[in-house]
Amino acid sequence: MKTAYIMRKEIRESVLTSKGFLWYILTSVILSVLSYLFLTNSELSLLDQGQMLYMIMNFVTALGILIGVVSGSDAIAGEIERGTLEALLLSPASKTEIAAGKLAAALMNWCIIFVISIPYLFVVGKGGQNLLSGIVYLAVLGTLLAVIFSAFSMGLSARIKSMKNSLIVSFLIFLLAGSPIFLSAALRTTWFGRVLDLVNPFADAINTFDSVVVDSQGFSYQTGRIAIICGYAFLSLLFLKRSVSRLEM
Amino acid sequence: MIKSILTAFVIFLATTVNCSTVFAAGRVAVSIDPPSVQANMGDKITYAGAITNNSDKAVNNLIAYISLANVTPGKEAPMDLEDWSANKAVKVDVIPPHGAYEGKWPMRLIDSGSYVAYITVVDKESAAPVTSPVSRLDIKRILRLNPNNVLPTAIGEPVIIGAVFLFIYLKRRNKAI
Amino acid sequence: MIIKVENLVKRYDGHTALDGLDFGVEAGDVFAFLGPNGAGKTTTIRILTAIIRADSGSVLIGGHDVFKEPAEVKKIINALPESSGYYEWMTGREYLGFFSDLYEGKTSTQDIRALLEAVGLHGKEDHLISSYSRGMKQRLGIARSLINRPKLLFLDEPTNGLDPIGRRDIHDLLIDLNRKHGTTIFLSTHLLDDVNRLCNRIAIINYGKIVRTGELEKMKGKGTIDDIFFTSTEGGTL
């Protein structure tokens, strides 16, 4: 219950301050521009509908991760820096309950981003293949990625106790996770590229989207990648629990 | 005399060789349909190419492909059909004597302008490829302002979120002293 | 005895912050905890309030071991930390409501209003904390620390940065709290006027050890509170 109250406070902070709302507005503006460009621009509009849907899904996932990294970094270190964590630690809520409430709020932020993206996914994917299965996969894998990156950033912020530093480190890891996408298609088909793709949860999610939406492959093709993502989610939660239990002012 | 005979022999040889080239080229013919197209950007059209075997022998393993050239004044250039068509070339295994093969080339019209499309057939028995007459293709630019009804979402959603934010912000601002 | 501390040791990166601390506080006391900067006052309060762990030693609060039963301890104590921050986007009422939710015996809306009134924030309860003055925030912090009606209240420099009127109001509030509700107050301060007005017992800490402890009235016979402090800490600055 205390976890729920802490989550509610965090969500209210997101909604009642510019902190969260700017993200929501930014997300909708980015998705508006992308959708409009995809559908009207002469070259992009001739992309396959599934391809467009896949690209929008990638953007939504990246935005979800980004908001998870920012809210995770702020969760503990931000409260320490603003001098508000001590009052929270004085309350009967345990450190684990506090961290769980904050993580749940970060996931709620992802949920809001996901809900914002749904109309765009429908508009862009209308008439194309695999729209509904794409949305389901985005909901599941996006949530798992939000857990991974939010929990990791939160754990890091509890250890480093500096919002700026934990944000820099988390952001670097996010960029590293995204970097294989910039590798050439040829390099990605080598054994090194494949291993790099497989151990990277972000690349795993994106390759799953590609497989489901563009190549219309079934669940049996996705199990390996989903298992790896689940493994990362478990490890990041473990990291958060250990980091928070060691937290000292 | 000998010189005259030699000259006549060379002319005969040259004529024979020339005749066989013409024959080889002439045994396959290709046409393109429709002969001209007027369409809009984004439309999908299909060219049909009829390859006929005019000889008494079957022809094997022909390669036929479609080409597009931009002939818009000032923009003359051959086109890379990468985005225009997924099936640019076909291999025809066999056309029986005096038979025909009809190939289809679907195409998505990516950009506006004036183009010519033509089909080329390569017969390995021939010294030169056979090309169809050109089909003129005029693609009109169209401005699609609201494809897939995207505008209500693209404009509406940021506006709604912004309005909710403004409402909350103004409501909370009243709580400041 | 509501606080019983024995041989408390805390080290940070090789530096000994608390070096075998021993003291006790009786229920109903207003206990002044004095010491120069860096003597270990804030560290002691953080250990006593179960926020950080000690390396060794024992602390009993209301008979509960702080290290083994932190949840039980938190039910009967509360504290106002020295550099307390606030959720500036909340109103005073929302702030207290949030903290009251975290306790089992949730405080009613009427009680929250009464609490805000008691600390002098009546009429400002629905204003954003970002618009509060420093003194108002300090009062709100005190109200927050009273949300669970604690038997034992830790206050770390509660009147720091307040004007004389603000300090007097806080003094009155604490006296009222102690006399009417019997709340034990553990007061860490560097303002000797606070000690004179509020406290009945004092302990002086220096280099992580208690160097003097006793009843204030008895000590006053040996000189002013300033004299006692300076002789105990070899001229240390408060």
Quick recap of the structure?
The complex is a heterotrimer of chains A (249), B (177) and C (238). With 249 residues, chain A is mainly α. Chain A has helices spanning 2-16, 18-40, 49-75, 77-82, 85-90, 95-125, 131-160, 163-178, 185-188, 191-199, 201-214, 223-245.
What is the name of the CATH superfamily of the domain at 3-82 and 150-233 in chain C?
Answer: P-loop containing nucleotide triphosphate hydrolases
How would you name the CATH homologous superfamily of the largest domain in chain B? Answer: Immunoglobulins
Indicate the CATH class of the largest domain in chain B: Mainly Beta
**How many β-strands of chain B, per DSSP?**
10
Low-confidence parts of chain C lasting 5 or more residues at pLDDT below 50?
A: none
Distance from first to last alpha carbon of chain B? 124 Å
Q: What does this protein structure show overall?
A:
The complex is a heterotrimer of chains A (249), B (177) and C (238). Chain A is mainly alpha-helical and 249 residues long. Helix content of chain A is 82%, strand content 0%. Chain B is of the alpha+beta class. Chain B folds into two domains: 27-143, Sandwich (Immunoglobulin-like), CATH 2.60.40.10; 145-177. Helices cover 28% and strands 39% of the residues of chain B. In chain B, the strands form two sheets. In chain B, strands 2, 4, 5, 6, 8, 9 and 10 form a seven-stranded mixed β-sheet that branches. In chain B, strands 1-3-7 form a three-stranded antiparallel β-sheet. In chain B, β8 and β9 (130-131) form a beta hairpin. A six-stranded mixed β-sheet of chain C has the order 6-7-8-3-9-10, with helices on both faces. Chain C has a four-stranded antiparallel β-sheet with strand order 2-1-4-5, with helices on one face. In chain C, β7 (152-156), α6 (164-181) and β8 form a beta-alpha-beta unit. The relative contact order of chain C is 0.18. The chains are: A mainly alpha (249), B alpha+beta (177), C alpha/beta (238). Chains in contact: A-B, A-C, B-C. The A-B interface holds A 15-16, 18, 21, 24-25, 28-29, 31-33, 35-36, 39-40, 42-43, 45-46, 116, 119-120, 123-124, 126-127 and B 41-42, 83, 108, 110-111, 144-145, 147-151, 153-155, 157-158, 161-162, 165, 168-169, 172.
